[in-house]
Automatic annotation (TrEMBL):
Belongs to the amidase family. GatA subfamily. Its EC number is 6.3.5.7. NCBIfam families: gatA. GO terms for cellular component: glutamyl-tRNA(Gln) amidotransferase complex; mitochondrion. Subunit of the heterotrimeric GatCAB amidotransferase (AdT) complex, composed of A (QRSL1), B (GATB) and C (GATC) subunits. It comes from Cebus imitator (Panamanian white-faced capuchin). This is Glutamyl-tRNA(Gln) amidotransferase subunit A, mitochondrial.
């Protein structure tokens, strides 16, 4: 009830697209009954959890924040949603995002942008008042980052205890960093993607947003595991429930600092927190070494080619026949497809479909798509080499800066900057590794800053244990 009333109070954040109040209350009643009757409880019994609106939910509208899927009600639950429900979680609602999870601001969905709850903190407002350049009025608020910004705002505003995001190039870690949360991207293949409406199948992973690392581990324990409906999932070695032990001996750890992540665009505040974090590990006896991930700078362009190519193929299913929106032109089937897709998708989605189809043209395929796949392998190998040289986890920034004001973010020239902002998160998806962003401090402006730990593939538990020690 408390969470539901907070959802109402914070409606102006635009965190939720659909609030599933009735479902949540009914589940809470059943949870309470189980508790009172002394029946066995699930790992998440009675815990309010929200789900990004690109996961299919049986009987609950699933829109991907797109005109294309407005009104679409899936007949089944994504595997991860079903697993949450099976363990007693209360489904609070579906959260806002960039259309089809394409973006890093949560500003590009058809239901409007998500506002960062930190925009309204006392400390930030005071600082803002002192700044002569700050705009006053209704549009003076910060973005959450994205694309899982609705999930981040929902947890950050205490309307739930955990939320599912998705992470293709950073969409869980980026908003977690901007909203002062833990944002965890599991290893590719550890958690089922069945029912997650795809952006880039070879990189998408369900992500977890929580307030602390222990909570993320608990949710991971529920979600992880082989799913016959997702052939890329592995039989995982994770004990259930996943309760993290305390790190026995920090001095046995080797922390790698990738030198290519020290880019000129990185804010000096984040840079100094990053080096203080490394010092902290060192002072506790850990070995901290500089490592090189030499292909890092190719990541953004390489991602662009691979992402748009997969998008071009994925989006073909939205033809006006099977799901959601259909325009009423009936001159020809082709004309109906074209008009449906023009009305259904925003500019970002249409732009990516066009780019992807360009890269996949017969005459371009070798030069772009195949080359990008080779570069992807080099990026992944960089990580393998670092880990083979003895590094246990890598420590990096999550974002270039703290959350920026909406009006600044939507300026045309900032759009390129926003792609650049994924520089620390995207390579991880190319390599399928686990990574977690954890909040480390408040900036001078009073805004949260996150740092990222990256682990070896399927060493998710070790990664979270290190993050917990640091937290
Ligand atoms: N910002 C990246 C993109 O727009 C990543 C998005 C994501 O992780 N879903 O593709």
């Amino acid at each position: 009830q408390k969470c539901l009333s907070l959802i109402k109070k914070t409606k102006f954040l635009n965190a939720y697209i659909t609030v599933s109040e009735e479902v949540a209350l009914k589940q809470a009643e059943e949870s309470e009954k189980r508790y009172k009757n002394g029946q066995p409880l699930g790992d998440l019994d009675g815990i309010p959890i929200a789900v990004k609106d690109n996961f299919s939910t049986s009987g609950i509208e699933t829109t991907c924040a797109s005109n294309m899927l407005k009104g679409y009600v899936p007949p089944y639950n994504a595997t991860v949603v079903q697993k949450l429900l099976d363990q007693g979680a209360l489904l609070m609602g579906k959260t806002n995002l960039d259309e089809f999870a394409m973006g890093s601001g949560s500003t590009d969905g058809v239901f409007g942008p998500v506002k960062n709850p930190w925009s309204y903190s006392k400390q930030y407002r005071e600082k803002r008042k002192q700044n002569p350049h700050s705009k006053s009025g209704d549009s003076d608020w910060l973005i959450t980052g994205g694309s899982s910004g609705g999930s981040a705002a929902a947890v950050s505003a205490f309307t739930c205890y955990a939320a599912l995001g998705s992470d293709t190039g950073g969409s869980t870690r980026n908003p977690a960093a901007h909203c002062g949360l833990v944002g965890f991207k599991p290893s590719y293949g550890l958690v089922s993607r069945h029912g997650l409406i795809p952006l880039v199948n070879s990189m998408d992973v369900p992500g977890i947003l929580t307030r602390c690392v222990d909570d993320a581990a608990m949710v991971l324990g529920v979600l992880a595991g082989h799913d016959p409906k997702d052939s890329t999932t592995v039989h995982d070695p994770i004990n259930k429930p996943l309760v993290l032990s305390s790190l026995a001996d920090v001095s046995k750890l080797c922390i790698g600092i990738p030198k290519e992540y020290l880019v000129p665009e990185l804010s000096s505040e984040i840079q100094s927190l990053w080096s203080r974090a490394a010092d902290l590990f060192e002072s506790e006896g850990a070995k901290v070494i500089e490592v090189s991930l030499p292909h890092t700078s190719y990541s953004i362009v390489c991602y662009h080619v691979l992402c748009t190519s997969e998008v071009a193929s994925n989006m073909a299913r939205f033809d006006g026949l099977q799901y959601g929106h259909r325009c009423d032109i009936d001159v020809s089937t082709e004309a109906m497809y074209a008009a449906t897709r023009r009305e259904g998708f925003n500019d970002v989605v249409r732009g990516r479909i066009l780019s992807g189809n360009f890269f996949l043209l017969k005459e371009n395929y070798e030069n772009y798509f195949v080359k990008a796949q080779k570069v992807r392998r080099l990026i992944a190998d960089d990580f393998v080499n670092a880990f083979n040289s003895g590094v246990d986890v890598l420590l990096t920034p999550t974002t270039l800066s703290e959350a920026v004001p909406y009006l600044e973010f939507i300026k045309e020239d900032n759009r390129t900057r926003s792609a650049q902002d994924d520089i620390f998160t995207q390579p991880v998806n190319m390599a399928g590794l686990p990574a977690v962003s954890i909040p480390v401090a408040l900036s001078n402006q009073g805004l949260p800053i996150g740092l990222q730990f990256i682990g070896r593939a399927f060493y998710d538990q070790q990664l979270l244990t290190v993050a917990k020690w640091f937290e």
